[in-house]
Amino acid sequence: MNKAPVLPGSTIGVLGSGQLGRMFAISARRMGYRVHTYSPDRDSPTGQIADVEIDAPYEDLDRVRQFASAVDVVTFEFENVPAPTAEAAAECTLVRPAGEVLHTTQHRLREKTFLRNHGFPVTRFEPIAVDADGGADDLCRVVSGFGPAILKTAGFGYDGKGQFRVETLAEAQAAWDAMGRQEAILEALVDFEAELSVVGVRGADGQCMFYAPSCNHHVAGILDVSFSPAPFGRQMANEAIRIARGILEQLNVTGVLCVEFFLTRDHTLLVNELAPRPHNSGHLTIDACVTSQFEQQLRSVCGLPLGSTEMLRPAAMANLLGDTWTGGEPKWEAALALPEVKLHLYGKSEPRPGRKMGHLAATAATAPLAERLVRKARSRLSR
Ligand code: AMP
Predict the structure, then answer these.
(1) Mean pLDDT of the chain, nearest integer
(2) Does ligand 1 have an atom closer than 6 angstroms to the CB of 187?
(3) Cα of 107 to ligand 1 centre, how many Å?
(4) What residues contact 257, with CB distance under 8 A and at least 6 apart?
């Protein structure tokens, strides 16, 4: 396969069509690229920006090959793209990051096992397999003596979906029934002081760059607010970046990867999750950094030199879920009356509760000030 840089004027294919593809496509268009997107949806957040929107199932491998043949490189904005889809695309063009990266990271058990086997710090976990008669012998064996835990589906989980907090066998069994008795992972509950994440990028030549860690607040398993730089000192930031670098290298990623961490009460870092793509906690890089995480994705998958990750100003980001529309159209002008606040909307027409519709970003002299400002802006939307 030709490894020469994919230069401006070329066409990038994006598998998936949500907001991550949209923000990627905005960066790509700005740098003179054309964008094609492929997903089962129409008038999608990415499709509204792309030159071409293909609306077909991921399982239609002939359409996937056709799509891949028409572009110079394929990347992902959605990591649950099935492995055969990535393989079909790779028969026709360059795919970055490679399908194996998706294969590892789209399945919690494979991901945690990869991390543990390579010596990266993770919370204690055990696999829960479905046995021959559809039961979970593992569950009974494992739960006793495990203590407070979280039972998660092994595959296709995101934003806290498919997760249940359990302590007793009865709770674990009820949770396993509720998730449809599928392969799962039981993780020890981490008593964390904070959650943070590092977005890193690895170029086609192996060069790695990292953004300052973000501190993340979740509500009901969904990211709510991020701010950066995270307030845990240089040593902690360096340690998080050291771990993230090791993961990018061991996974042999060409592209962007986010590592989500727990910071435990005794100040050790445990890796919670990987996302082999730009991440919600990195959205603030658009307004705060020399190069956004989306431009880095573009540069890395095109084999171009990476841009600076320097943060020009501390920043914060607040998600806007569909719930923001409960009382009618949000009061945009009230939030935008704060001049350091930026509005990003993803072009989704149906504001369902829990659905990520957009975000607000704010920059300020310090990260806590930016956080306060972005929260204030968001509260103005529904006043
Ligand atoms: P996940 O989808 O696995 O990233 O989980 C979503 C959120 O659930 C995390 O950001 C945490 O807030 C919480 N969570 C997940 N796993 C654990 C765990 N093992 N211990 C404590 N909290 C967890």
Answers:
(1) 95
(2) yes
(3) 15
(4) 97, 101, 199, 200, 201, 202, 244, 247, 248, 251, 274, 275, 276, 277
Whether the predicted pLDDT of 157 surpasses 70: no
Q: Are 342 and 360 in contact (CB under 8 A)?
A: yes
Query: Of the residues 109, 272, 273, 356, which should be mutated to test ligand 1's pocket, given the most ligand atoms within 8 Å of the CB?
Result: 272
Kindly give the number of the ligand 1 atom that is closest to the alpha carbon of 152. Answer: 3
Distances (CA, A) of 55 to 82, 150, 285, 338: 16, 36, 30, 39
Ligand 1 atom nearest to CA at 157: 2
pTM of the model: 0.96
Of 172, 177, 99, 185, the C-alpha closest to 140 is 172
pLDDT at 160: 59
C-alpha neighbours within 13 Å on the C-beta side of residue 372: 6
State pLDDT tens for residues 163-218: 899 999 999 999 998 888 889 999 999 999 999 999 999 999 999 999 999 999 99
- What's the count of helices (H) and strands (E) in the chain, helices before strands? 12, 18
How far apart are the C-alpha atoms of 20 and 125, rounded to whole Å? Answer: 30
140 pLDDT higher than 90: no
Answer yes or no: is pLDDT of 132 > 80.
no
How far is residue 366's CA from residue 205's CA, in Å, rounded to a whole number? 35
CA–centroid distance, residue 243 to ligand 1 (Å):
19
pLDDT band at 146 (very low <50, low <70, confident <90, very high): confident
Q: Which of 219, 103, 107 lies closest to 158 in space, CA to CA?
A: 107
Cα 110 to Cα 17, 62, 153: the distances in Å are 25, 28, 12
Q: How many angstroms does the Cα of residue 14 sit away from the middle of ligand 1? A: 28
The C-alpha atoms of residue 303 and residue 75 are separated, in whole angstroms, by 12
Using DSSP, state whether 370 is helix, strand or coil.
helix
Cα–Cα dist 312/308, whole Å: 11
- Say which residue, 185 or 2, is predicted with more confidence: 185
124 lines ligand 1 (CB under 6 A): no
Which residue's alpha carbon is at the smallest distance from atom 18 of ligand 1? 189
150 lines ligand 1 (CB under 6 A): yes
Report the atom number in ligand 1 closest to the C-alpha of 187: 19
pLDDT-derived band at 130, boundaries 50, 70, 90: confident
